[in-house]
Each structure stands twice: as structure tokens, then as C-alpha cells.
Amino acid sequence: MRHVFLIHSPITDLAARRVLGHLGVPVEEAIVLASRGYEPRAADWTVVPVEYSHDPESFPAGRIPLGAWSRLRRFDRRIARIVDGSRFHAYLPQTSQRFMRFLATHRLCEGFSLFEEGLASYRTLEAMNDASPVPPLRRRERRAYGRRLGMPLFFDPAYECAYGLQDASFPGFERRCVVGPTSGEPASDAPPGVECVLVGCGLAAHGMIDVDADLAGIEAAVRALEGRSLARVHYKLHPAVLRSDLTDRYRSVLERACAASGREATELGPNVLLEALAYESPRTLFLVSLSSVALYAGAAGAEVLCYSGAVARHDPRIVPHLEALPAAFEEAVTLL
User: Fold this and answer.
1) Within 10 A of 191 (CB to CB), how many other CB atoms are there?
2) pLDDT class for 27, splitting at 50, 70, 90?
3) Contact indicator for 151, 166 with CB cutoff of 8 Å
4) How far apart are CA 202 and CA 288, in angstroms?
């Protein structure tokens, strides 16, 4: 049987490796479907880049069911080729997106498990399903995909196991297993001498808060460094920002804010694993708004400052997101 992992970020890459090690699965039996343009950091996987997404939706219903059925048949045939006709178990970060549902309901799939990807992995199944309600399928969608989509909950209760990296992962899940920690291989791939990292948030890029409010929070975070002997602030932008037309604006604000305090701003590459950096260099200072990096950095003993309160002063729409944070997040950070 093959083991098929859907990964799209450094943390899902790391979590998938921890699951493989825990299960004792030979790496040659594992297949990675790499989405969002993510490139896994090691060559020992069988890696298949996939273009499926929910924004834009790769599986629209369309007016004519025949077109939808044809898209789904092509997907099914492609997955069958990827696994070489073998039965497989799917490992998913969540289950609400259509292409994830179609992977879990493929005729060759014997079941699916969840594995850690970020803050959502630190909330209960009920909380995430309530917070991310799925609208009822329209008639057109039922005709096209109804049997395969089922009820696309964020966390489908039919999961076999939920694999987390820390004791606080997947709280309240009936079938869970901790496969951490985030220390050890793979390495962070960060340059030497990283003393301070600002971790970007994706809410503004998704239109959920105002961009100016997010940038004001970043400026406040840099000003909070006054009195610290830090010559350089490294930063890592959220993937949603990097995929948007906001990238240059964020870089410009960070460079100006750092220059105003006599510091340099240096961007870290998208594949730098900050979760591993926290363990490699626990004296590194982390500046976060809403990021699961805070959980791993706090567990490693690093200092974590949270600037989301500064964002809230400019846009209160971030407040419900703050109130929904797991207790583990609040325990890991110091609010600015």
C-alpha cells in the first residue's frame, strides 16, 4: 500500500516526515503531492507537483454536469497513475476543499488521516467545523459531485488518526497521535546569525483585515525592538502575500521601519523552516501576529512577541481571530 501526503508548506513537509518515521514506513512507499508551488526540501520523496486549489476552484460545478464529471474522471485517472494502481492511505491537513475530498474518496483510497499544518491543528474538531461552516451544496453541485463531496467539513470525523507535533495538537480528537517534536532533521535552512525574525500574517492578503492595519502592526512590532541590540531583523512573508500583488508593499514597509531604527531588514526564503530554527537557535526572538510558528518557538523556549493587538487598534476585524486562538498560543506569546 502507498502512503500519499498532500503538503504545501515547510510545516506540512516536516509533519509528514514525522508521521512517516512514526509509522516506520519506508520512504519509497510514500508519495508527496506538492501543491501551492511548494518544493519539498529533500530528494528522497517521490514528489508530484499538483495544481489543484480552491481559489480558484479546480472543480467548479459548471452548468453542464458532463464537464464536471469529465474533470473528476481525469483527476481519478491521474491519481491512479501516480499510485501505479495500488491501494493507498491519504494524509491531509484538512478535508474541506474539493480536491482533498476527491482524494479521500478515490476508489483506491482505503482511508485518510489528518496531520498538522498550523493553528487550525490546535483547535477542536467541533470548533473548526463550527467556525468554517460549509454552505449546502447547490443543485448543480449535487448533480456534479454530490456523492464524492459528501459534507465537506473542515475536519471530517471519519479520519483514521490525527497526527500532531505537540501534546497540544488536535485537542479533544478521539484518535490522535503525537509524532513530534519539531527539532532534529530536517534543518531550518536559515542563514547563520539569525537573532530576530518577524513572521508575516496572511489575513490581509485574504481580504479578512485591512492591509494598512496589518502594516501598522508590523511597524509597531519593529518599534518595540527599541533598546535591544539587534542590527538586523529577518522577516518571512506569508505565502498568501507572496502570491498577491502586495509583496513589494510589505517589503518596502519593513525596510523603512527597520531603517528608521538603524537596523537592516533581510527577507528569508519561503522554504526556511522557522519551526526548526526555534530549536536550533532558541535565543532567537520571534515577532508574530497570528502564526503557528509562535507555538513551536514557545515550546522551544524562544521569546515570542505578538503584535496582533497593534493590528486590532487599526482594524477590529482581527479580534474574532484572536479570540479563537487556542490556549497554547496565548501561553507561548507576550502581547505587545
Assistant:
1) 11
2) confident
3) no
4) 11
Give residue-wise pLDDT tens across range 158-215: 999 999 998 889 999 999 999 977 665 567 788 888 999 999 999 999 899 999 999 9
The edge-to-edge listing of strands for the beta sheet with 303-306 is 264-267, 232-236, 196-199, 285-288, 303-306, 334-335
Distance, CA of 306 to CA of 83 (rounded, Å): 43
- Which whole number is the average pLDDT over 132-146? 71
Please give the angle made by the CA atoms of 8, 117 and 332, to the nearest 5 degrees.
135
Distance CA 303, CA 226 (A): 16
Asked if 93 and 6 touch (Cβ cutoff 8 Å), the reply is yes
> Could you tell me the pTM of the whole model?
0.86
Dist CA 242 CA 263 (whole Å)? 23
Contact 215, 235 (CB under 8 A): no
- Strands in 176-178's sheet, in edge-to-edge order, are 46-49, 30-34, 2-7, 88-92, 109-115, 162-164, 176-178
